[in-house]
Design brief:
Elements: E1 2-7, H1 21-30, H2 37-57, H3 61-71, E2 78-80, E3 84-86, H4 100-112, E4 120-121, E5 125-126, H5 132-142, H6 146-166, H7 180-192, H8 196-209, H9 224-244, H10 260-264, E6 271-276, H11 301-310, E7 320-327, H12 329-334, H13 351-354, H14 358-368, H15 379-382, H16 385-391, E8 394-398, H17 400-407, E9 418-424, E10 429-434, H18 449-460, H19 466-477, H20 496-500
Parallel strand pairs: 7-8
Antiparallel strand pairs: 1-6, 2-3, 4-5, 7-9, 9-10
Helix pairs in contact: 1-7, 1-8, 2-4, 2-18, 3-4, 4-5, 4-9, 5-6, 5-7, 6-7, 7-8, 7-9, 8-9, 11-14, 14-16
Organism: Gordonia asplenii
Catalytic activity: (2S,3S)-2-methylcitrate = 2-methyl-cis-aconitate + H2O
EC number: 4.2.1.79
């Protein structure tokens, strides 16, 4: 890896394009280096994982809304001298071909709705699996091969994860999808075999158009939390389309005198270090990301497993006086009491708010000894008097050691867990800690292909027929060998009776 220093430059400075971060990302994207076998294997796992959570969310209202919008944009298929072959893209669960940016929109919301897919945490937060829907949609529309899709996804994961390592957005209340727009643009560039100048312009446009505030993840959290990454993917597709037609971008987008660093991040004196693979160095960043066993914000994964483990040592949960979770700064201020969000203790809060309240999540996991993507968030579950009472006994505090481990670059030391101190009414304490979730690569039950398949079959049960499940899993496993023009096979048919149960969505503009 090569560490690149990124800082603001004055317009009068001699700052050649070759030094721009967007250009260095473009150079990474055009590097013809082979994708390692273990990277390919993990990309296939994450394609399966995205299908799992899409099946679980397929008739939720935001997903139904996004799907209805996409279905109003059928593809204009065919071929012309100017555009080449155009096939259309698939929307999860339904037949037909649709405009790729709208298919990416619908599928991106389905993937993100339940907060149930992969994650990478460092200086910033991210869900790099959000790159998959836009790249698959364009791959289907342009008729590329499975090998080319894998190459594009390796780039997209690498770019987003490396930006997350080096540049904190949340510090300045900028939403994490500002790293997703550039990664999708770069991944599309690799997949489509675009030149470095086109990718450079597309990366700049995608970043310029996907910087928004973190209010989407603060206070009473709305359904926009699911739409935000899908929007970034849709915008990135449109940015690549414009760049392919010869249109440019504000530049230098990160380093400019009136650019992202100067006015949205650390300011004119800000300086960042972004690591990127050197020429000929394989793209392996996906291997440092991790998926979720539980449908909840990633920093609550280990606390859920910890609560389930501690439950056996508590004779009577009603006898608990207080619970303090000692954890990292990120966990404390994003999903803990350090957020100062009273909504995180509101039994009538939205599901999106509850999955960002580690106090609620720890209480339910402690009481139930399990976690379910539907039952654990049900209004009647959240409003149970004994749950509300326990919930209000839980608080978080920042522990400098947990913060240090959160930011450690040593994967054997990096941790996203907590130490729980449960004080009983008689004054006794029950103390335990867990550094990483059970499903983490270093956890008690790390996820590999069998676990990804089990997650898919479990969440697809009753949504997708068993024959269709087997067909999809066979297709996904052979992704690298799918010929050009046959990636439509990645779409999955949902049982019509399931789709018929989706909520009725009001008429919009489209």
């Amino acid at each position: 890896m090569i560490n690149h220093t990124v800082r603001t430059r004055r317009s009068a400075d001699d700052f050649p394009q070759s030094e721009h971060l967007a250009y260095k990302i473009a150079q990474l994207a055009v590097d013809p280096v082979d994708v390692p076998a273990d990277t390919t294997e993990m990309i296939i796992n994450r394609v399966i994982d995205n299908a799992s959570v899409s099946a679980a969310s397929v008739i939720r209202r935001p997903v139904t809304t996004a799907r209805s919008q996409a279905l109003a944009h059928p593809a204009q298929t065919g071929a012309s001298e100017a555009t080449g072959d155009r096939r259309g893209a698939q929307v999860f669960g339904v037949p037909g071909s649709f405009s790729p940016e709208w298919a990416a929109w619908a599928n991106g919301v389905a993937v993100r709705e339940l907060d149930f897919h992969d994650t990478f945490l460092a200086a910033e937060y991210s869900h790099p699996g959000d790159n998959i829907p836009p790249l698959v949609a364009v791959a289907q529309h342009k008729g590329v091969s499975g090998r080319d899709l894998i190459r594009g996804l390796a780039t997209a994961y690498e770019v987003q994860i490396d930006l997350v390592r080096g540049i904190s957005l949340h510090k300045h209340k900028i939403d994490h999808v500002a790293h997703l727009g550039p990664s999708v643009a770069a991944g599309l560039g690799t997949m489509l075999g675009l030149d470095d100048q086109t990718i450079y312009q597309a990366v700049g446009q995608a970043l310029h158009l996907t910087t928004s505030t973190r209010q989407s993840r603060k206070g009473q959290i709305s359904s926009w939390k699911a739409f935000a990454p899908a929007y970034a993917g849709k915008v990135a597709i449109e940015a690549v389309d414009r760049a392919m037609r010869g249109e440019g971008s504000p530049a230098p987008i990160w380093e400019g005198e009136d650019g992202v660093i100067a006015w949205l991040l650390d300011g004119p004196d800000g300086e960042y270090t972004v690591p990127l693979p050197g020429l000929g160095e394989p793209k392996r960043a996906i291997l440092e990301s991790y998926t979720k066993e539980h449908s909840a914000e990633y920093q609550s994964q280990a606390p859920i497993d910890l609560a389930r483990r501690m439950r056996a040592h508590i004779p009577h949960i009603d006898d608990i006086e207080s619970i303090v979770l000692h954890t990292s700064n990120h966990t404390h201020v994003v999903i803990g009491t350090g957020s100062n969000d009273p909504q995180k203790f509101d039994p009538t809060a939205s599901r999106e708010t509850l999955d960002h309240s580690v106090m609620y999540i720890f209480a339910v996991a402690l009481q139930d000894g399990s976690w379910d993507h539907v039952k654990s968030y049900a209004p009647e579950r959240a409003s149970r008097p004994d749950t509300v009472a326990l919930w209000n006994k839980i608080s978080t505090v920042e522990d400098p050691e947990w913060t240090r481990r959160y930011h450690s670059e040593d994967p054997n030391e990096k941790a996203f867990g907590a130490r729980a101190v449960i004080t009983m009414k008689d004054g006794s304490e029950i103390v335990d800690e867990l550094a990483v979730a059970d499903a983490h690569p270093l956890g008690a039950r790390p996820f590999a292909r069998d676990q990804y398949v089990a997650k898919f079959t479990g969440l697809a049960d009753g949504v997708i027929g068993t024959g269709e499940q087997r067909r999809f899993l066979d297709v996904a496993a052979g992704l690298a060998d799918i010929p050009a023009g046959e990636l439509d096979a990645l779409n999955i048919a949902v049982e019509q009776s399931v789709l018929d149960a989706a909520p009725v969505i009001g008429e919009g503009i489209f």
